[in-house]
Amino acid sequence: MTKNKNLPRVTQPNLVTPFACNNKTIILVIPAYNEEKTIGEVISNVKNYADFVVVVDDGSKDRTSEIAEKEGAIVYRHCINLGLGASLITGFKIALKLKGDIIVTFDADGQHCPFDIEKVIAPILDEKAEVVIGTRTKKGGNMPFSRKIYNYIANILTFFLYGNWVSDSQSGLRAFKASALEKLILSSQRMEISSEIVGQIKKQHLKLVEVPISAIYTSYSLSKGQNFKEGLKTAWALFLDKFL
Question: Which residues contact 79 (CB under 8 A, 6 or more apart)?
Answer without folding.
Answer: 59
